[in-house]
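Internal tracking record. Fields below are filled automatically when a chain is submitted to the structure queue. Please do not edit lines marked as system-generated. If the sequence contains nonstandard residues, flag them in the REMARKS field before resubmitting.
Queue: standard
Priority: normal
Entity type: single polypeptide chain
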Amino acid sequence: MKETTPAVTGERHVDKDGFASRKLIRPLLNHTSHSSPSHPVQNGGERRDRPERSQERSNGARKSPPPDQTNAENFYYQKQMQSKTSMVIVLTDGEEVHGCIEWYDRACIKVNRSSGPNLMIYKPSIKYIYKEGEGRK
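SYSTEM-GENERATED OUTPUT FOLLOWS
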């Protein structure tokens, strides 16, 4: 059976401008109920309709797109550079480069190696990176 909440009616009086009086209906709030009006009622009650999307953004503004960068990559590189962690960089052709990341920018990273010359590696040629002690599983 559907729950009904009694309503209190109030009257508006005629303004000086000549507007007709309107009834103002205010529902009484039942504080013992645990379901909020924005959520559907659990026990077979009716679901309330959502307002149209055009009403939510009446000025015609669209939702802003997500940011291009989350800075997670920059945070990871900074952390590895500060701790001078030995990293393994696996390239797209399967070659592995062992060394520490010295610096990075938007397009490439510089890797210091003890077993050979330092390398500058373009990011598009990197398949994935992991810490040397972790290994692949």
